[in-house]
Specification:
- It is a single chain.
- With about 600 residues, the protein is of the alpha+beta class.
- The protein folds into five domains: about 5-180, Rossmann fold, CATH 3.40.50.300; about 190-275, Translation factors (Elongation Factor Tu (Ef-tu), domain 3), CATH 2.40.30.10; about 295-365, Elongation Factor G (Translational Gtpase), domain 3 (Alpha-Beta Plaits); about 370-480, Alpha-Beta Plaits, CATH 3.30.70.240; about 485-595, Alpha-Beta Plaits (2-Layer Sandwich), CATH 3.30.70.
- Helix content is about 25%, strand content about 35%.
- It is built from 14 helices and 31 strands.
- The strands form six sheets. An eight-stranded antiparallel sheet has the order 11-10-16-7-8-15-12-13. Strands 2-3-1-4-5-6 form a six-stranded mixed sheet, with helices on both faces.
- Strand 4, helix 4 (about 110-120) and strand 5 (about 125-130) form a beta-alpha-beta unit.
- The chain starts with a strand and ends in a 6-residue tail after the last helix.
């Protein structure tokens, strides 16, 4: 056990985690020349196309230092704020972390938030200054920033360039010297933490785990504590680029387990695996439950595909434990699911993965957050409002509360004014402003979560020319003045387009939604009124004009009454048509509501 090292890589988006992981694999000879490619551990098409990591990946490397062989288990983690749940799982399975900082961009908001996560779990932190070869790199200044943040000595910060392969041997030496070897009792009952799982259509669920006590052997009868179910370990092994079956995975090591489980719901990430005959008395702590931030409805385009969508979502949930969903139905869209996501990027990725991996074409409704409504009859018990249509009649509500977050924004001092006006525009209240250096400022705001759901991140990048970094954490519910804006098409309410908004913005949003829908809904044979309403009060209206045939073309001259008679006849036909006509809403109309500020 004393020759095993378990570590992860944490950093902000684009600071070079995946490239550093590639270089470590090259340097330790874990990959052959044939297998080498950039972003080696990112095996999803979307990850490679976008250049981001979505899932954490585990891989084992062997390395020899001073004549002694060591086993290094690396877990690469995502950097985007939406995937911080994946990071918390990786951290729970490790003893050390490489904190990677870009020498040109310095410390960003997500770096700090991941660092605090690692420190809470008592991980040994190894600071790495990456991209020192860039012309825009300022290594001395960034080293000072790291020293201020960690309280380490300047010489402890390893200067590296993952792209050029500089400083890789120093990083490996630091991992072996500084990261503590795993502790645990090999003779105690088996106790292992499940930190990831993948669905394989041939072999069922593959579970990735880290052994804390005892060992797991092939053919052993094991038990999952959360579900209380027993299985046989058909195959256990270590994770290289491919899976390597072994007869036993010992204390402190990381491996995979195949038990032939076919039902996705039976494996819970964060669960403890133990021996069925001699179970461990206590489950492993230090694992946080996922908190969805953004809710949206996902519906199949064809209602008959509902069951197929359900099984696709369950398989996807295995691979992405932060996705939460419950069935719901909508008058406009039929049967579907109410899904909880960690943020807008997460929602986009889930939608794209459903289309690519499961061939499911889906319609996504307007994202929103969960509110608490309190009725006048029972002012103590909250009614949870996940969907605008769940909001009770306004006359029976005493108050509505919405979730607030604490937003941390780090930006260049030139853009402080722009960032502040954006946040105040989004109903934010500034709580703190700290100058980290003369150039960099940290701003703290209390903001409603609903305001950052749509386009906040994109607009923040725009006003700061890409220099601002953003991180957030929930701070509870606060009373707010909210109203439901309904959209009526041809006098019929479309529940999928309803939105809960702040009373001050309601008129403005209602007007914009009507204008946007007017552009997107195709013209019909009859006039279509588009109205925005609060309760029974119409606050905005647009009309899509009918496609009209020139019925008076055959009248050349003659009495005006002949023309009028034909026009009246057409008018009656259009009126009758409007009473029975249905309006098809195109998919982009649902998504357009998100892009109201474009």
């Amino acid at each position: 056990m004393k020759h095993i090292r378990n570590f992860c890589i944490i950093a902000h988006i684009d600071h070079g985690k995946s490239t550093l992981a590639d270089r470590l694999l090259d340097f330790t000879g874990s990959v052959t020349e044939r297998e080498k490619k950039a972003q080696l551990l990112d095996d999803m098409d979307i990850e490679r196309e976008r250049g981001i990591t979505i899932k954490s990946h585990a891989i084992q490397m062997n390395y020899e230092l001073d004549g002694q062989d060591y086993v290094l288990n690396l877990i690469d983690t995502p950097g985007h704020v939406d995937f911080s749940y994946e990071v918390s799982r990786s951290i729970a399975a490790c003893e050390g972390a490489l904190l990677v900082v870009d020498a040109a961009q310095s410390i960003q908001a997500q770096t700090i938030s991941n660092l605090y996560l690692a420190l809470e779990n008592d991980l040994e932190i190894i600071p790495v200054l990456n991209k020192v070869d860039l012309p825009s790199a300022i290594p001395e200044e960034v080293t000072d920033d790291i020293v201020d943040l960690l309280g380490c000595a300047p010489e402890e910060v390893i200067h590296a360039s993952a792209k050029e392969g500089v400083g890789i041997s120093e990083i490996l030496k630091a991992i072996i010297d500084k990261v503590p070897a795993p502790t645990g009792d090999p003779d105690a009952p088996l106790q292992a933490l499940v930190f990831d799982s993948v669905y394989n259509s041939f072999r069922g669920v593959e579970t990735y785990f880290r052994v804390f006590n005892g060992s797991v052997t092939k053919g052993q009868k094991i038990k999952f504590l959360a579900t209380g179910k027993d299985y046989f370990a058909d195959e256990v092994g270590t994770l290289r680029l491919n899976k390597y079956p072994q007869t036993e995975i010992k204390t402190g090591d990381v491996g995979y387990l195949i038990t032939g489980i076919k039902d996705a719901r039976e494996v819970k990430v964060g669960d403890t695996v133990t021996d069925a005959k001699n179970p461990t008395p206590n489950a492993i702590e230090g694992f946080e439950d996922v908190k969805p931030m953004v809710f949206a409805g996902i519906y199949p385009v064809d209602t008959e595909d509902f069951e197929e969508l359900r099984s696709s979502m369950e398989k996807l949930q295995l691979n992405d434990a932060s996705l939460v969903f419950t069935p719901e139905s909508s008058a406009a869209l039929g049967f579907g699911f109410r899904c909880g996501f960690l943020g807008m990027l997460h929602m986009e990725i889930v939608q794209e993965r459903l289309e690519r991996e499961f061939d499911m074409t889906v319609i996504t409704t307007v994202p929103n957050v969960s509110y608490f409504a309190y009725s006048t009859k029972n002012p103590e018990k909250p009614i949870i409002v996940n969907n605008p249509s769940d909001l009770p009649d306004p006359s029976t509500i005493s108050r509505v509360e919405e979730p607030y977050i604490k937003a941390t924004i780090i930006t260049k001092s030139d853009f402080v004014g722009n960032v502040m006006s954006l946040c105040i525009d989004k109903r934010g209240q500034i709580t703190n402003q700290t100058y980290l250096t003369t150039e960099r400022v940290e701003l703290n705001f209390d903001m409603p979560l609903a305001e950052i759901v749509f386009d906040f991140y994109d607009r923040l990048k725009t006003v700061s020319k890409g220099y601002a970094s953003f991180d957030y954490a929930p701070i509870g519910m606060r009373v707010s003045k909210l109203v439901r804006v309904d959209i009526l098409l041809n006098a019929q309410p479309v529940d999928a387009l309803s939105a809960l908004v702040h009373a001050d913005n309601a008129y403005h949003i209602g007007k914009k939604m009507c204008e946007k829908l007017k552009e997107l809904i195709p013209r019909q044979q009859f006039d279509i009124p588009i109205q925005a309403a609060i309760g029974s009060k119409i606050i905005s209206r647009e009309t899509i004009k009918a496609l009209r045939k020139d019925v008076t073309a055959k009248c050349y001259g003659g009495d005006i009454t002949r023309k009028r008679k034909l026009l009246e006849k057409q008018k009656k036909g259009k009126k009758r048509m409007r009473q029975v006509g249905n309006v098809e809403i195109p998919q982009q109309a649902f998504m357009a509501v998100l892009k109201l500020n474009d």
